[in-house]
Amino acid sequence: MGSIVDGANGTASGKKPTVIFVLGGPGSGKGTQCAYIVEHYGYTHLSAGDLLRAEIKSGSENGTMIQNMIKEGKIVPSEVTIKLLQKAIQENGNDKFLIDGFPRNEENRAAFEKVTEIEPKFVLFFDCPEEEMEKRLLGRNQGREDDNIETIRKRFKVFLESSLPVIQYYEAKGKVRKINAAKPIEAVFEEVKTIFSPEAEKVEA
Question: Which InterPro entries is this protein grouped with (predicted)?
Fold first, then answer.
């Protein structure tokens, strides 16, 4: 069984892919930054949420199961999300990936490393104060502010409670690259560039 598993984890070239986890609360602007990283540094952007939605849309047995779990307010098991991520990595010709919005919690993280045998190169953490996130999210949908502020605060709280242990785990390994996400988009990307550029130059040389 061992050899099959090993083969299944690599990319087409046989070597393990480079994986970077991208974490940040709602409104931290990580989606925009991921698009920039893809454009400038040739990474493939994988969003756990998008993969789950695509699977549901496909109408597969797996998709129906995911849809039912979400309907019932249940959390989709780590293994399900990880298998979708793993499949996306294997089917893509690229060997470097940004995994966005995952791991959402410590259990996700442990399961990802166990199932894929891939440890992220580093974690890109878009750190944005709650007030700034609120301002951004409320600015997106004017007219519904009253019922939104509570929802936003709840989402932020859930993000902090579940994601902080993941960030602390990787921080202890020296793998967290924290970005001040409260700044304007361009300024944030300048900071992102300082993390990615040394690698990009090596590739071009």
Answer: Adenylat/UMP-CMP_kin, Adenylat_kinase_CS, P-loop_NTPase, UMP_CMP_kinase
* Token pair recorded at residue 43: 């990474």
Side-chain half-sphere CA neighbours of 40 within 13 A: 18
Q: Is 19 exposed, middle or buried (0-12, 13-18, 19+ CB in 10 A)?
A: buried
Q: Dump pLDDT digits (tens) for 120-144.
A: 999 999 998 888 888 888 877 655 5
Summarize the annotated binding site for a ribonucleoside 5'-phosphate as residue ranges.
53, 74-76, 101-104, 144, 155
| Binding-site residues from annotation for ATP | 27-32, 140, 183
Q: Is the distance from CB of 45 to CB of 100 less than 8 angstroms?
A: yes
Determine if the pTM surpasses 0.85: no
From the list 205, 189, 186, 176, the residue with the least C-alpha distance to 20 is 176
Annotated binding site: 27-32, 53, 74-76, 101-104, 108, 140, 144, 155, 183
**Using CA atoms, how far apart are residues 205 and 200, in angstroms rounded to an integer?**
9
36 vs 189: CA distance, rounded Å: 8
Residue 11 has, within 13 A of its CA and on its CB side, a CA count of 16
